[in-house]
Design goal:
33% strand; alpha+beta; three-stranded mixed β-sheet; hypothetical protein PF0899 fold; three-stranded antiparallel β-sheet
């Protein structure tokens, strides 16, 4: 389960930020996960709770926003989103499209206690 290593990486990054800003209490971490990032959001949230259990981050929430698949058509420049793998541009019907969104895994923000 690679979600455990991803959760640990998130915690490591957040911990460095907390220390650099002199913050002791974490409330939430907000992340964006692309549909093709090969991450199961529920498992990632569970792993995050395990990794933070005996730390000053215990009880913090991992908020996960799923990013849909986004494409750009090379022929007409149309940008479009799809819930599934797309192989045809909905505007011009060309099959030369590029996946532009949906693979990301980013920390968008960190919420701390007052």
């Amino acid at each position: 389960m690679h979600e455990m290593s991803i959760a640990q990486s998130i915690v490591d990054i957040v911990e460095k930020e907390l220390v650099s800003h002199g913050v002791e209490q974490l409330k939430a971490v907000n992340i964006a996960v692309g549909k093709w990032a090969a991450v199961v959001p529920e498992q990632l949230a569970f792993c995050f709770s395990i990794v933070t259990a005996d730390t000053n981050m215990a009880g913090a929430t991992l908020n996960i926003k799923e990013v849909p698949l986004g494409y750009t058509c090379s022929a007409c420049g149309e940008e479009f989103a799809s819930g599934e793998m797309a192989i045809v541009c909905p505007k011009c019907g060309d099959t030369n499209i590029t996946l532009t969104n949906g693979r990301e895994l980013t920390i968008e923000s960190i919420e701390v206690a007052d």
